[in-house]
Design brief:
The chain folds into two domains: 114 residues; 119 residues, Glucose Permease (Domain IIA) (Distorted Sandwich), CATH 2.70.70.10. The protein is built from three helices and 13 strands, in the order E-E-H-H-E-E-E-E-E-E-E-E-E-E-E-H.
Length: 246
């Protein structure tokens, strides 16, 4: 019979010696276990490296997206500013046109009473179609859903006038406005004149006013009038009424 040779297993011994009491411990690790541990470490390093790479790629993508979003926001802000400027220019031109129209009509008003009565019949004075300020007022902000009124600057010796004929239903104030006047017109219209600064009030609750009558006299420079028009208790753009009737 032939002698069978037995394969010897490779075994590595690890000797650990304490540096305090001099005691030592010996561990034996097979070559297979050592190779397995080494392979596991290599695999873990590869996985960690891949995760780090993916994270860096994702971070780069996020940075690019953030830059694109910031660029789009800047473009949107610029477009909004341009739109607001165009809207203000349009509204200012409309207000100036209305003021010139009123001045032209006042200057060209016929002297004869029958012709004047005929002119009054052609328009409905109860509709708030007049611009609410007869002074050198400048339109500051336009109507919007967030701000359901227009803001007008007014100056000393200017007057806040009734935009249409009606009945004064409110003369008051609150924590925001020094003077609040509300006029109720026919056809479901209401107008509100909200002045931030103090002034001289020229009407009272229950008074009947005609279109163009003075409601308040401005007594200080740089006052702000917030003017609101409601139709059936719903706010509408005041300039749409002025444009429609003017």
């Amino acid at each position: 019979m032939k002698n069978q040779r037995h394969k010897r297993k490779e075994i590595y011994s690890v000797l650990m010696v304490s540096n305090t009491d001099g005691k030592s411990k010996q561990f034996q690790v097979s070559a297979f276990t050592l190779r397995f541990c080494a392979s596991l470490v290599v695999v873990l390093c590869l996985v960690i490296g891949w995760l780090i790479y993916q994270a860096s790629v994702a971070d780069g993508v996020r940075q690019v997206l953030r830059q694109e979003v910031a660029s789009l926001k800047e473009q949107l802000t610029a477009l909004e500013a341009e739109r607001e400027d165009l809207t203000k220019d349009k509204l200012t031109l409309a207000a100036e046109n209305e003021a010139l129209r009123q001045q032209t009509e006042a200057a060209a008003a016929p002297e004869e009473a029958p012709q004047e009565e005929k002119s009054k019949e052609e328009t409905d004075p109860s509709v708030p179609s007049l611009y609410p300020s007869d002074g050198a007022g400048i339109l500051k902000t336009a109507y919007s859903e967030e701000q359901p009124y227009i803001a007008i600057s007014a100056y000393t010796d200017g007057h806040i006038i009734a935009a249409g004929s009606g009945t004064v239903t409110v003369v008051s104030s609150d924590d925001t406005y020094a003077h609040i006047i509300e006029v109720e017109h026919e056809g479901g219209y209401k107008t509100r004149y909200l002045l931030l600064q103090d002034c001289e009030v020229n009407t009272e609750q229950g008074a009947q006013v005609e279109a163009g009558d003075t409601l308040m006299t401005i007594t200080s420079d740089d006052c702000q009038l917030d003017y609101q028009v409601l139709l059936n208790d719903e706010p509408i753009d005041p300039l749409s009424v002025i444009d429609a009737k003017g």
